Structure formats: C-alpha cells, structure tokens
C-alpha cells in the first residue's frame, strides 16, 4: 500500500509528495550506500576499485571478479565442484526416414540422491561414416519454437543436443520433465546460493557437455566446435552457459533482454521496459529487487556477462521493435562488451545483427543466418564475416556531424539574444519548405503493416474507450483515444512518450490497470499519441536522421512534430480513419514523461495554442549536468541518444549553454505548468531541478517533488488527472 504524505514547501504552488512504499524505501536505502554509481555501464576493463586492466593476467583476474559479481548480484553461487557422471542409459534410439538417429539418454550424477536428467540427441546421417573427431555440436533448449534450429543444424551435419533447459512454466509434451530438472539439482546442493532457474539450467547444459565431450558418449565431436543457441529467456540461458563454461566455442543469443543482452541501466520504467522488479522470482536472486530505481548502482551489467565470452564467438540477434530487447540498451551493452574483444585482438568475434519486426517469430531466414554464424565460427563452408552486416541504430559521431556544419552554424547566439533564438539555434535549422512539401502524402497505414505489433496497441484498451488511427505532419501515424458515447467537446491532451525505442508511445512493462492515454480517455479527454522521431514505428527514421538533416536535430524534429500535431488538432491538417469526436480546441495540454517531458516544455513554451504543460521526470538543468555527475551529464543527450548534437560543443563547458530550463519555464509562465520530479530519479540532480524551478518563479507553476524513483504509473497518473481537473 502506498502512503500519500503531502506538505507545502513554500507559500507558492510547490508540493512535496511522498509516493513511497515502506518496502521500496528499504530497498533504496540499501542501494544508496553502494560504493559504485554510474549512469553508464560498469567498464569491463576496470576493476571495481577503479584500477585498469593492462595485461592478460589482469584480464583473468577481472574475469573472475565479473563472474563473482554476476553470481552475487543476479543468480547466486554455483556448487564448488561439478558432480561426476555415475551412470549412462540409452533409453531409446531410432532412425527416422531421413536417416537422422534420435537418441534419448539418461544421465545419472554423483550427487547425494543420484540426481538424473535426460537429453535428446539428433545424430546426422554421416555420423556412421565419420572416422575423425570433427563433427560440430549444437545445444539448445527444446522449446517448440526452437526445435527448428536443431532440425536445420542436423541437416548441416551437426550433432544436436536438446538438454533440460525448458523454463519452469514452459512444459513441452514431447520432453516431459525437462522443465523440472533444475529444481531437482537445486535441492541436491542446499549449501549453494544458486536460486536462478536460468543459471541452474545453464549449469545443466555444462553437465550435458561433460557427457557429450567425454569418451563415454562415443560421438565424434570436435571439442572446438561447440555452440549453444536460445531465444528470449533461452537467449539469457545460452549467454549464461557460454559465459561460465569456456568449452562453448560460440553462442547465438536472440532477443535475450535484461539483464543478459540489455543492461538494466537502459531499461526500466522510464523506457517502459523490464525492470529488476519484473523478472519472475525464479530467474534471479530476491536481492536484485533492491536496485529498483537505482540501477546505476549495479556493479555488473550485461556488457560484463558478454565480455566473459571473449574472445570466443558471440552473436546478438535482435529485432528493431523488440519489446523485450530494446535496441538502445542492446547497443550500449554490445559496445561495452566489444572493448574486451578488442583488448584480446578478436573484435570480429562479436556481432550485433538486427532483424525486421518484433520479438517473435523465428523464421527460416533467421534460422539460416543464425546457423551461418556457427559455421563461420567453426570454419565450415564458405561463410564470411562480412555476411553479418552491422549497422548500429544509435551511433552518433560528433566529429562527423561537425564536419557537415558551417563555421557560422557552430556559433551560439549572444547572451542578449531572445530566448526563442537561442532555442532555435540549439534545435538546429528546420529544412526550408518542409511544411509545403508533398513528399509524404497522408495515409492511414494499417496496424498490421506497421513496425509495432497490433496487440501492443490494443493490449491495455478498456471497453469504454475508442482508438482512432490518424495521420498528420510528414505522414506520422498516431492514434486518438477518447471515451465512448461522448457528445460534448473534449479537452485535448497530446501525450509524449519516454525513451521507449522499441514501441514508442505504446506502453509495455509495468502497466497498472491501463496506460496513461487510455486512462486519460476514461477521465474524459481526447488523447493524441504518436511515436516520436527514432522510436517505435519511426525507429529507422532516427537512425538515418543526420544523413538526411545534418543541420537539424532529433529533438528539433520532435518539437516540430508537436507543432504538426497542433496543426492537425486546431486546423484539421491531417486525416483520420473515421469521423473525429468533438474537440475543445481551446483546451490543449502537452503531457510528457522523461524524454516526452523535455519535448513538452520545448513544444509548449512558445506556442499559444498550448494551454497547459505537464512534465514528469522530464529534465535536469543543462548547465549543471556534467560528466562527473552520476546522471551521466549532457553526454546522454548529444552522444548517447543523438538528440541535441550542439550540446556536444559545450562538453565540459556546460555553463556556457545558451539557455536552461528555468528560462523555458519563465517563457511559459502565463499558462498552467506541472513539474513532477522524483527525489530518487537517478537521471537527474533533484536539488538542481528544485533550484531551477525556484529560479523560474511561481507564476502558474505547480512543482511536485516526490519521494519516489523515476516512474509514471497509476499513482503519477492520478496526480496528473487531478492537476488537469484543477486547471479546467
């Protein structure tokens, strides 16, 4: 139960609100005492005491440290020694019509209760003809959508092993008991702290190798050609197996998500992605939850896990709009792990490959490409490294950007210049004639033809709300949510989403009841939402943005799109799939969370059509946000996300930035403004936010300083709805 404890912090319209469960408070207090805190991932070539890795002996020690940290933080400690195999029983064997031999083997181990598990082998036709120990081996978990990997691999001449890595709630009828083997072995070692089903199952993969690579199997397997592959939770498991067992030569991890391929620092409530609270309790140590909202205190992250695999072969295979494996987080982890590969002179042995679509399905082309990675790693056939094309989606290079600018473009306006001129300079130049171009004829694109799956748009929609597809601006696809059965003109909210690269305006993890756009519709508002440039359906637009518009900025485009949305709502410059509901065009509020809060302040400060602005966890002042701060500094905006390249001109000279958020707030002071800031928001300096608001003056400004972490859920929704009601 959440306690609400409010009190006035000034005679003005500033509130301090406690939205804080006692259990959460206890979690946060533990983490706040941690020694490590960084907005970026922990460097893999740096010990926890800050000393660098300078040679291979250092690296071996650092690997051991990362392993220890991973176990302590995520999965618990494995048994000190692996049990020996006591008995081997071929339960049954048959030869299929295609010549493949199917063999079921029961392995019994030297544990207190002689625990056992089964594996299923697919043996290629040529195994009977092989005279050398040269066949490749591929392990995977027999989830129904992964069996096709095994079938395709055995056709290529691989020995295939389906081991008991099926998740606890994913029972497969053809593989009875595979989902429970991990529990059996967990009970055999009561003194081990391992509590992660995924970690234990990766250990079972290693125990399978004990048999497969031993003399007892009698199989002609090349021990230098051993691969493992998995999707989603099985992608996690595969990375764990490869990280902790060097006998795995290569791994393909598809859409593994947090914490395996996507670091928790770049997933969370402010991205509508999986947090440390969302993982099933069987997957991780209970103590992991104490990092909620304080993911920057995690001493080891996904880049460290992947670095443990170096210099062996690792392919990350993810989707553009993967709601469990957001591209930005994966890229940060990939680049952070690649440092270890470069250190070991093997930079080509790790790769990141994108596919079109969402989390699922696994297609024939995916299977072919995934197996090609193993063939290349194992030096089979004519596969080349260049066959694995790599184009990062979030790779911004300030030097390259500056080369495209004129010298005059890089000179900021003087101190006495009007604020709008300073803002326009930082946003960059809107291309001439953009509004008059007809290069993007408006159309309503069917939900099934868009990058984000239909189910994610309808997932949280209540029965008493309509969802109307619309299009405006440069053929931006959006939706208008509004209450059913309404006849009166509805006040309007433009909802601006946070850093949700995979799904844009469509919410994912952490939803409590319904989403903000549907909840606002239930409260009597017409809510326009759309994916901003570089997010959701428009993800690839962001990847090529500076090739097309080198003098503009992504944030500038986002603010421009808000203007286009206003044009649509007030002047009808757009289209809808059906008749629009009656709208009150004299009541248009911009509401944004995280990134959206920053866009809302910029989009509403100078536009008289906007009658109110609400920004939740939307900013920390530019001029005081340096690299030395735990926030990560302005580097997040100009380099990591490529939002405002010109901020990079002020790197380590932040006090010279032409304007700051207090000036934006002053410019908008005639209209109601709500600024909601969480005291424990790891992305901001809460004291600086409060000082910024104080510099702006009161006006019609409501400032709420909440005793909470960065999130925008039902409690925050209520704060917003109450505020909206108060200004009508």
Notes on the structure:
The protein has 728 residues and is of the alpha/beta class. It folds into 2 domains: 56-387, Alpha/Beta hydrolase fold, catalytic domain (Rossmann fold, 3-Layer(aba) Sandwich), CATH 3.40.50; 425-727, 3-Layer(aba) Sandwich (Rossmann fold). It contains 21 helices and 20 strands. The strands form 2 sheets. Strands 1-2-20-19-18-17-14-15-13-12-16 form an 11-stranded mixed beta sheet, sandwiched between helices. The chain has a 9-stranded mixed beta sheet with strand order 3-4-5-7-6-8-9-10-11, sandwiched between helices. Strand 6, helix 3 and strand 7 form a beta-alpha-beta unit. Helix 4 crosses helix 5 (197-212), helix 5 packs across helix 6 (233-244) and helix 19 (661-667) runs parallel beside helix 20 (686-696). The longest helix has 20 residues, at 56-75. It is elongated, with a radius of gyration of 27 Å.
> Distance between termini?
30 Å
Helix-and-strand structural type: alpha/beta
User: Into which percent range does the helicity of residues fall?
Assistant: 25-40%
Rg for CA atoms:
27 Å
The general outline is elongated
- Could you report the average pLDDT, rounded to the nearest whole number? 93
Tell me the number of helical segments per DSSP (H or I, 4 or more residues long).
21
Beta strand %: 15-25%
The CATH C-level name of the largest domain is Alpha Beta
Catalogue the unreliable spans.
1-13, 25-34
Assembly category: single chain
CATH superfamily of the largest domain: Alpha/Beta hydrolase fold, catalytic domain
Q: Quickly give the CATH architecture of the largest domain.
A: 3-Layer(aba) Sandwich
Number of domains: 2
Order of strands across the main sheet: 1-2-20-19-18-17-14-15-13-12-16
CATH topology of the largest domain: the name is Rossmann fold
User: How is the main sheet built?
Assistant: 11 strands, mixed
